[in-house]
Design goal:
- By secondary structure, the protein is an alpha+beta fold.
- It folds into two domains: about 20-45 and about 105-230, Immunoglobulin-like (Sandwich); about 60-100, no CATH class.
- About 20% of the residues lie in helices and about 35% in strands.
- Strands 7-6-3-4-8 form a five-stranded antiparallel β-sheet, with helices on one face. A three-stranded antiparallel β-sheet has the order 1-2-5, with no helix packed on it.
- It is extended, with a radius of gyration of 28 Å.
- Residues about 5-20 and about 45-55 have low confidence and may be disordered.
């Protein structure tokens, strides 16, 4: 009887440890978990649209005077501001700023991915995507790509946090909707590119940076606030 009690205890010590996730494609980044959900984010108000009214043809706008005005010291009064059109545009801008709230709520989706730095270098930038594949038709896939500015030291974890107005899938097949198991979409987080503080870069072989070049320029074209990631 005593031997039967000791046997399970011995098995507990000799049981092999569980396998930990491995980095993807040699990226030295381990994806520990992911999730997405509907969310609402408060965005800062955009600058009012500038008036497109052509300036009045006052003497100061004729070529000679206009070219001479370019040499005026910084802060000099623009003659256009004193015209009727200029005063009207200024009043419109004041009224627009008064009517518009400083922030505005936007409904969208939050995307999360917890990753671990399995290298001996500090990760500075991560390009990643949340993939959604139609379970009935694997050829149908939606990708939500993000760029994140991070500082992940070796062997440390971090949760990447991104927001997008676009949902998990643009198109879902009829077969997937008819799937009563509830698994119409298969989810996967993929690391596309990793940039380290020492200047080295790792990039996934079948990922092309040129495909997101324009969206990358838009993402880095304005100063970043408190957000960690921006959509591509």
């Amino acid at each position: 009887m005593r031997n039967l009690i000791l046997l399970p205890l011995l098995l507990m010590f000799v049981a092999p440890p569980q396998n930990t996730p491995a980095p993807q494609d040699g990226s030295s980044v381990v994806v520990l978990g992911s999730k997405w959900y509907k969310s609402r984010q408060v965005l800062e108000k955009l600058d009012p649209i500038a008036s497109t009214t052509a300036p009045a043809m006052i003497p100061e706008n004729k070529n000679y005077a206009k070219n001479a005005r370019q040499n005026n010291p910084t802060g000099a009064l623009d003659p256009n501001d004193a015209t009727i059109d200029g005063r009207h545009a200024a009043l419109e801008k004041i009224n627009e700023e008064a009517r518009s709230p400083s922030t505005r709520p936007v409904d969208g989706y939050a995307y999360r991915a917890k990753i671990q730095n399995a290298s001996n270098r500090i990760i500075e930038i991560v390009f990643w995507e949340y993939q959604f594949t139609d379970a009935a038709k694997p050829s149908i896939m939606t990708r939500r790509q993000f760029l994140c500015g991070v500082n992940i030291k070796p062997a440390k974890d971090k949760e990447l946090q991104a927001f997008s107005v676009s949902g998990p899938s643009d198109v879902v097949s009829v077969e997937a909707l008819a799937n009563k198991s509830g698994n119409a979409l298969q989810e996967k987080v993929v690391i596309n590119r990793v940039e380290y503080t020492d200047g080295t870069i790792w990039q996934r072989k079948d990922w092309n940076f040129g495909e997101i070049r324009l969206s990358y320029r838009r993402a880095v074209g304005t100063p970043w606030g408190t957000e960690m990631c921006r959509g591509l």
